[in-house]
Amino acid sequence: MRAAKGGAHEQGGKHISGGEQISTFEGITHAVNFLLEKGLTHSKGSPDFMQIQFECIHDSVRLLKPLDVQSHQIESVEKGQALARQLLRQAGVPKSSIETLDQLLPSYSRQGGAVLFDIHSDRPIDERGIRVSRMDWQPDNYEQWAAYHGVPRNLRMKEALVLATKVTSHPAAVAELCWSDDPDYITGYVASKRLGYQRINKLKKFGDEQGCRIFFVNGREDIESYIHYLKKQPIFIRWEEAE
Prior knowledge:
The protein has helices at residues 28-40, 77-91, 95-108, 139-149, 155-168, 223-232, and strands spanning 2-5, 14-18, 49-51, 62-64, 69-72, 114-118, 123-130, 135-137, 173-179, 188-192, 196-200, 212-217, 235-237. It has two domains: 2-51, no CATH class; 64-237, no CATH class. It is 32% helix and 25% strand. It is globular. Homodimer.
């Protein structure tokens, strides 16, 4: 599902909401109704364009364990941004890439997808915006995971962790930096295989509609394979309690 105001996204419409689910055929009606409600009740306003589509998945679904989660309560946006830079360095992103990104970030803030950023050239590989798709987490399993770890059982947390887990599991992935374009949601995260999902409570100011989604990648890996994986490989997150 994608929803916008002022016309479709490709016609200059303002993005309002987006989402997806992996469903059985029998569950399509429920999934469509869920996505319809999500698009119509977003904090960014009421859309005047919405598109909901479904397609059959023929590829085998891969199971991934959710990334480990750690939350950081920070006093200010400035300290949150500083922590994000520190975590990116720990994840393997060079200082030069982070400094270059600081200069380019304003131009990416309204990008309709994720920007792939090569840590070796310190330049974006694809600025058109990559949309990650075909991923989900069964509600009952997510509820069990959330209860076990004592984390919020909300849809936003679930969707972010599903995406971060898929994005960082590929060999080409180094780290992800993300915060929402929702003006009333200022929490974001840094994620990587090495660090897990590092949730930071303040990464932008209230009222700011500029979002960020950057995938730091190793450009010496097969990037076309990574892009195909992000767009087409079906993923289910599956958690099992350690014995």
